[in-house]
Design brief:
There is one protein chain. The chain is of the alpha/beta class and 350 residues long. The chain is built from 14 helices and 12 strands. The chain has 2 domains: 81 residues, Winged helix-like DNA-binding domain superfamily/Winged helix DNA-binding domain (Arc Repressor Mutant, subunit A, Orthogonal Bundle); 170 residues, 3-Layer(aba) Sandwich (Rossmann fold), CATH 3.40.50. Helix 2 packs across helix 7, helix 7 crosses helix 9 and helix 9 runs parallel beside helix 10. The longest helix is centred in the middle third of the chain and has 25 residues. It is globular. The N and C termini lie far apart (53 Å). It binds S-adenosylmethionine. S-adenosylmethionine binds next to helix 9.
Length: 350
């Protein structure tokens, strides 16, 4: 500690991290704008210098150099001998037309995140959700008014569920199970990955009736219409079909603890003896220290009245309270946590 005046202590702490955090949004916005300008797709054809890139993406020269070098600093571009190319991450996820393209998700995030998070202080004062009107571009993806944007958003999410499905396919010993229901399974993408990896599985995607057309279109396009059935219903009110395994991905974070337990009680009735429930979300670490998870939870509280992420220990407690035996938990994709609940008689998961 250093002091110039003993009455006014000046703490010798570097303000750098604080300043970087203060402008952390700027890095996100650089990514969002690069996706809007479709810069990474332009570079998929090969490296370009700043002038060529400016021409290809209508970038104004006054900002181009700083923008491109900032993208390189953020490890989205690689600059070599004055020419730019995509980094491996950009090449994998930010080039339009690829199955792994995340641009739809990034575009909608760009449109909606700033408006929503810009009202965090109001939310903190009032406790009220602050999400935008879905008809005016709100974040609540599945009620988005513009069908084209909705489709791009879902395509973006499928890039996640492709990966999630591949990890779930590996994480569980599916050889002992014959069937699964993906509860709130949206347009069936996760179910598609699972049946492709484990063709012996009987698959049902359960979602609200309004999801049926986008399910039929997507699963039809994947050539899996005869492999995955759609069951329409409200999982709080209508019967949940029986299965060996029931998957709840990004479901419980939309509800509070009472609603989550009510849903898990219904799921318990639907899981066959010897089966399991698989729950994944960006769950909060039990000690509540992981800032990314806590920010995701705040996000859910901003965009929904009852939602919020929950601790892994909370999820295990709910499962136990509703009759499931503890089947363990594990990280998923480095961003999520998978919690497994077993119904009576189950021998355990790998
Ligand atoms: C956040 S999305 C999760 C989609 C997918 N499981 C995933 O992990 O990406 C929530 C899904 O649950 C569905 N859903 C919400 N409430 C529901 C209800 N009461 N009954 C059935 N489905 C519901 C929505 O239509 C939506 O497809």
């Amino acid at each position: 500690m250093t002091t110039t005046d003993p009455a006014v202590p000046i703490i010798d702490v570097d303000p750098g991290p604080l300043i970087r955090l203060t402008i952390a949004d700027c890095g996100a916005k650089v990514l969002h704008s690069a996706v809007q300008l479709d810069l990474f797709t332009a570079l998929a054809a090969g490296p370009m210098d700043a002038g060529e890139l400016a021409g290809a993406t209508a970038l104004h020269p006054r900002l181009a150099a700083d923008f491109l070098d900032a993208l390189a600093g953020l490890e989205l571009l690689i600059r070599e001998d004055g020419r730019y190319r995509n980094s491996p991450h950009a090449e994998a996820y930010l080039v339009q037309g690829r199955d792994t393209y995340l641009g739809g998700f990034i575009d909608l995030t760009n449109e909606t995140l700033y408006g929503t998070w810009g009202r965090l202080t109001e939310a903190l004062r009032t406790g009220e959700p602050q999400h935008l009107d879905p008809d005016k571009g709100g974040f609540v993806g599945n009620s988005h008014g513009d069908p084209e944007k909705m489709k791009r958003f879902l395509q973006g999410l499928d890039a996640f569920s492709d990966r999630m499905g591949a990890e779930l396919a590996r994480a569980i010993d599916w050889s002992g199970h014959r069937s699964f229901v993906d509860l709130g399974g949206a347009r069936g993408n996760l179910a598609a990955v699972l049946v492709n990896r484990h063709p012996h599985l009987d698959a049902v995607c359960y979602d609200l009736p309004r999801t049926a057309p986008i399910f039929a279109e997507h699963v039809g396009r994947l050539g899996l219409a005869d492999r995955i059935r759609f069951a329409a219903g409200d999982f709080f009110a209508d019967p949940i079909p029986s299965a060996d395994v029931i998957v709840l991905g990004h479901i419980l974070h939309g509800f509070d603890a009472v609603q989550s337990r009510r849903l898990l009680a219904r799921v318990y009735e639907a899981v066959r003896p010897g089966g399991a429930v698989l729950i994944y979300d960006r769950m909060i670490d039990d000690d509540r220290r992981d800032a990314d998870r806590l920010l995701s939870s705040l996000h859910m509280r901003l965009v929904s009245r009852d939602g919020g992420e929950y601790r892994v220990a909370d999820c295990r407690d709910w499962l136990r309270a509703e009759g499931f035996a503890d089947g363990g938990h594990r990280p998923l994709l480095g961003t999520h946590t998978l919690v497994i609940g077993r119904s009576a008689g189950h021998e355990g998961e790998s």
